[in-house]
Amino acid sequence: MKKRFLILRRFKPVPRVQCGTACTRLRVVRYGECQKNHAASVGGYAVDGCREFMPEGEEGTGEAFTCAACGCHRNFHRKVQEYEISCECLHSD
């Protein structure tokens, strides 16, 4: 049996800017809905419905990796990357 792989991209690639050092790119990462399967031990599929990651503690502490709403680790939440480009030069993009 031949295996097939499907690769999906969830974000648009960052456009390359050729105007020099005046442009900066900033990557903002946030975490969306929880995708932990709570019924995996019985062979089913059930998620808890947590819509967005909210850290329990301050940034830099161990509690910052735990969601205050559902109690899951941050890795169970969908990662959403957004990019911002700020330029002081003039170019056509």
Explained architecture:
- By secondary structure, this protein is mainly beta.
- 0% of the residues lie in helices and 23% in strands.
- The chain is built from no helices and two strands.
- It has strands spanning 24-34, 77-86.
- The chain has a two-stranded antiparallel ribbon.
- The termini are far apart.
Quick structural overview:
The protein is mainly β and about 90 residues long. Helix content is about 0%, strand content about 25%.
Biggest β-sheet: strands ordered side by side in the sheet? 1-2
Q: Report on the biggest sheet.
A: 2 strands, antiparallel
SS-derived structural category: mainly beta
- Mean pLDDT equals 79
Specify the helix fraction band: under 10%
Uncertain residue ranges: none
Q: How many angstroms does the end-to-end distance come to?
A: 46 Å
Query: What's the total number of strands?
Result: 2
Number of helices: 0
**Beta-strand percentage range:** 15-25%
